[in-house]
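Issue: ligand-bound run for thiamine diphosphate - logging full I/O for the record.

Environment: standard queue, default settings, no custom constraints.

Inputs:
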Amino acid sequence: MSILETIRSPKDIKNLPAQRLNELAAEIRALLVDVTAKNGGHLASNLGVVELTIALHRVFDSPTDRIIFDVSHQTYVHKLLTGRNGDVFLKIRMDGGCSGFSSPDESEHDAFVAGHAGTALSAALGLAYARDKIGDGTSNIIAVLGDASLSCGLTMEALNNMSATTKRLIIIVNDNKFSIGRSVGAIPLYLNKILRSKIYGATIGVLKKMLGSGKFGTSILRNARRLKRALKSLILPTSYFEYYGLRYFGPVDGHSIAQMEEIFEFCRHSKVPVLVHVKTVKGKGCAAAADFPEKFHGVEPAVALENCEKNADCEKNTASAKDTDYGEILGLQLAKLAECDVRIVGVVSAMARGTGLVHMRNKFPDRCLDVGIAEEHAVTFSAALAKGGMRPICAMYSTFLQRAFDQILHDVCLQNLPVIFCIDRAGISAHDGATHHGIFDISYLRPIPNAVILQPNGAQEFVDALHSALLWNCPTFIRYPKSCGRVVDASALKFSKFLGIGRADELVRGKEVCLIALGPMIDLARAVAAQLKSAGVNAGILNGRFAKPLDESALGKVFEDYEMVATIEDNVLSGGFGSAVLEFYLAAERNSSGVRKNRGTRKILRFGWPDKFIGHGSSIGSIMGKNGLSPSEIAGKIIGALSATEPHSRKISTANAGVGHFL
Ligand SMILES: Cc1ncc(C[n+]2csc(CCOP(=O)(O)OP(=O)(O)O)c2C)c(N)n1
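Outputs:
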């Protein structure tokens, strides 16, 4: 039996002899590599926190003590030590497996939901305040942040509030010098300065001498004042944290469990908020991940690490096996566009690799502006770049753009500034689950005046949309999923056709029902149409393309020609594209603009994501299937509605609740 198999709860870890801990760490690392090779997931970050997580669970008493991990992509080790080793972990991020992020529904040891960066400190402060006011007043609240998350705006806001909120809080900064790529900005630089300071070695020496290597219990308290004086005199550049009312400890070797246990034990009794600066190596224990932490931050399912050469070819090999990413196309197009137009800059918030802007970064390092995990800043910064005459292309994942709603509204759209937003990962994010699905953007962007929102149908239309948007000169939001669903030669794509704002495209002429879809949902519409055809129903397909403005003339014709319309989108139904079509229809009907031409009320069905949070799953297809969005279910609902006895009734059918409503 492995050591890991004997750990059923954090209590078992406390009872493990110290000399067996490194063996346990090695077992955990081997499992992390195996599981992420099969299921994909956050490899490098988890490899880096193995000892840190063991030390935390040896010293603190979860779940009485609450450990809150920022982003929580690095909680795999925590999951293994808190009763989730076994089948549920082997299926992590897949159907029936545990989530790749912190999930209180899954375990009492997961203190707070997370998936977006910078939330841990605010969450910790809230829990600490509640503990002080209505809780036991004694348990520990520990926030574990990466060096990149420490510099998030939200973290800064919480830091600013700390001393007014509680006197007892422990912050662990896991400093591995990396965000996904290298951490950027002044705060990571400042941490680095501390690490590089000559006194680092001396500090550790003094701590070792003062604390000894074994268990110390109350002796630590006796030594505390001496320790404090010694640390203060030794670690000079830490006053930044002291302004926030924090006592700084470190840097500590994040791969020495003994060293961390000593410091954490001291922190447990601290009567003031403390910050422990832990130095770790991202990807520790796996040569490829340690050498290329950016690439191995998150890995795709079924990447066989042992076959990965430790060079850039590895990336090419794995990429060639799958469909082309829109990000790849974006990065290459931007690099080309930037050659002929000095005004073009890429703006990205810590996601240069994920959004494809690495290509721009490689070619024009000073015109790929990575602002760190700072979406709000990225958006206002882009607004001002546009105001200053530049042409910013701000690339961000749909889920993270949520952070910057007010900046989009107040800073970009209110001034009608020509910022082009390339919204990657729009739609369902299969393995990451609820925190990462990009299924809200149409709904939160649609009410904003001046916003032009579109979803291209495939790689060529994406390139055309990007180039056309540069000519439109207005706030533009181009949404698309990760992959364009086909293998295309990204470097050969060229601008081929100017797209007029708000122009839809009839793809298939039909008779009984018109399917209006956006982006990849057009492929789904084709599959639905095929099923309808075999049931004797002739379906037309309209590429809606724009969620705003709608193509009113094309829609008017659709409502004239078809008795039934079904919208299909990769967004929530509430406020999405289907809602826009409904609004259009109702307004047109009220204005008696002739859309009905005395042929009776049209039936409108909407297909999209229901009003609930959707979890993770093995594939986008499996999640769609579970939510009534398979071709056969959609076709079945359309056939059912077509054959309903009262074609002109105007009631909302509850039979379709969640996935499709008809009017
Ligand atoms: C608001 C937000 N923006 C971007 C991301 C994508 N993201 C996930 S992890 C990560 C890097 C986190 O770096 P750090 O906090 O230093 O932790 P590490 O992975 O290095 O341990 C980023 C940018 C996110 N999760 N949330």
